[in-house]
Amino acid sequence: MTAVAHAPVVTPTWTSEQAVSVARTLAAHFAETASQRDAERILPGPELDRLAESGLLAITVPQEHGGPDLPAVTLAEVFRVLATGDPSIAQVPQSHFVYVNAMRDQGTPEQQEFFFGEVLAGKRFGNAQSEIGTKHVRDIRTTLRPSMVEVRAERASRPRSWLLNGTKGYATGALFADWIPVLAHLDVDGPLHVAWIERTAPGVRVIDDWDGMGQRTTASGTVELVDVHVADDRITPYHQTFDRPQTYGSFAQLLHSAIDVGIARAAIEEAAEFVRTRSRPFPDAGVDRAGDDPLVVHALGQMEVAVRGAEALLREAGRAVDAATADLTAQSAGTASLAVAASRASSTAVSVEVASRLFEVSGTRSALGALNLDRHWRNARTHTLHDPAAWKVQHLGRWVVDRTLPPNHGQL
């Protein structure tokens, strides 16, 4: 369903500059029809095919497996740029890169050889992690149980095949994926693992029931799993990720921040374009065009300061994640988490504020429904709900007060 026509052209010698350049070209193309896709909820299948064919989805594959292994700071910039074109398209591969990272961290050599080869061939990873109706975001009910054949046999302590059952929500990327990594308990109340299942496997049903007011074309719907057979060599541990210092969480959160920063940049650019070409000046300003109204200019200047600050914090956070990955200790991992927390707190506030002030500087005409300028605010408000920004600030505050490092989990 989602396979690309040919393998992407990414090579181990790809540079960060090349990756960002490709992202800019794609973002410009995506921007041309982003408003229409949002207004009519047209899912971006052809656009995601083009993204896969570009090679960008393979830029973090390790060099020993044939990829360029580009750093997190580059990937964050790629996501930011893509989000300026269409943040829904940028959000879809977020889980793809998180699970490429998970495979690097927890996969066996044989698993890494296979799955990194899949990525280099243009295949995409989705996501079936969160569940709806549980106590909290880290409360998981989905379970892997030994298959009946294994139960009846005089088997060793570890079965060779499992049955996967559960229901997942907010499964961004699953509808467009070739492989869906599923977070599940190994046996009842056992440790969390990731089951790597094919999108087309029997028992897998991906439902396009996402109805968000923003990020409307991410297809972040439901995944139903009924007796899905999973071979033991398609399962990787998840719980061990947090038994030691890690950048798994900060890496994932960095990409979310990049999407918000991209939304903010797109909103201010569209506001400026509207002021230049469509707005009328307020009579009290005594000017001939809205772009010369000192209050409008001042407001746009304030917005630019805020967006540049968010962009700077994003770069700083990316560098901190890379530094911690290169020299992983509790201190370096905590420092990376704090840097990303600062970026996410900033990007949350800035994206929502700038997308709202767009109307303040653009005037009454900008509120016309046909223009669909409210999509920037809807996208920002929806995506920034992914994790509470207030908890980012709380952990930063505790560090300021007594140098307490943040907790070691996937939301920081």
TrEMBL record:
User: Which keywords, in A-to-Z order, does the entry hold?
Assistant: Oxidoreductase
A biological-process GO annotation: L-leucine catabolic process
The record places domain Acyl-CoA dehydrogenase C-terminal at: 254-386
* Parts forming coiled coils: none
Q: Which residues form the Acyl-CoA dehydrogenase/oxidase N-terminal domain?
A: 21-122
Query: A single GO molecular function, which one?
Result: 3-methylbutanoyl-CoA dehydrogenase activity
Query: NCBIfam families per the record?
Result: sulfur_SfnB
Annotated protein name in UniProt: SfnB family sulfur acquisition oxidoreductase
Q: Which organism is it from?
A: Nocardioides currus
- Print the organism lineage: Bacteria, Bacillati, Actinomycetota, Actinomycetes, Propionibacteriales
